Amino acid sequence: MVVARWNRRSPRLFPREARWLLGTAAAVYLLILGGPLLGWDKVGTTGWGITWNPLSAYEELRQRTLASEGAYLALGPSAEETVYYGARELSPEELEQARREVDPGDAAYYRYPTTDGRIVWIDAYGHDVDLDKRAELEAVPPPPVRTEPSAGLIVEEKIVNALLFVPIGILAFAAFSSWWARLTTGPGLSLAIETVQWAMAAGRTADTGDLLVNTVGSAIGVAMTAFASLCLGFFHREGARHHSPVIAGEDSLPV
């Protein structure tokens, strides 16, 4: 709203100032987000990786949410004597997915609570454990189960990425009169950041998912400023209409 008001009050001066602010912000973003700010010695030490799948973060989140929440209890030295205890209640669909994803090399038995209040025991091949073996497993005190926090960090990271590019969209709206320039400034800056990350090969890969999230954040900034400008224009016209001087004799009635 503040940017839209300044842009309306100084339609010639403010776009130049906004372009200067936008250029400064772009340089800061490239330095902090593109380069390894505290690890320049790592430049060129890793491979040049690109994550082409824009939904890779969602898939990683789904896998961690399903598989990483829980704890293992080793009853012996091998995986055949290891029990996995899930922490989160699984829906019927998630339970079927868990059956498909069990691994004999990971654990011999898996225990999952379900959303309908049951406890399900399955073996390393996704089959239900027989009653005798289940009674034996339930007699063993379970380990303390902790939730893996890294799954939530994925969501927080993407939200922060989007929020970082909202100001870029706001400044782009004020800096340019062309909608094409306004809408492509954010994606262009994001592409430059991902390219720098890829070229430096300092342990950070270029990610099309980040490009998509940053584009959404920039578009939100443009949309917010456009909406604020429309509202200011509407209020300005309404105020001018209500406070316009009345022409003498306009309201007089003929006798």
UniProtKB/TrEMBL annotation:
Domain VanZ-like, chain residue ranges per copy: 155-226
InterPro entries the UniProt entry points to: VanZ-like
Keywords: Membrane, Transmembrane, Transmembrane helix
Lineage: Bacteria, Bacillati, Actinomycetota, Actinomycetes, Streptosporangiales
Recorded superkingdom: Bacteria
Membrane-crossing residue ranges in chain numbering: 20-40, 159-181, 211-235
Keyword Iron: no
Entry annotated with the keyword Hydrolase: no
Name this protein carries in UniProt: VanZ-like domain-containing protein
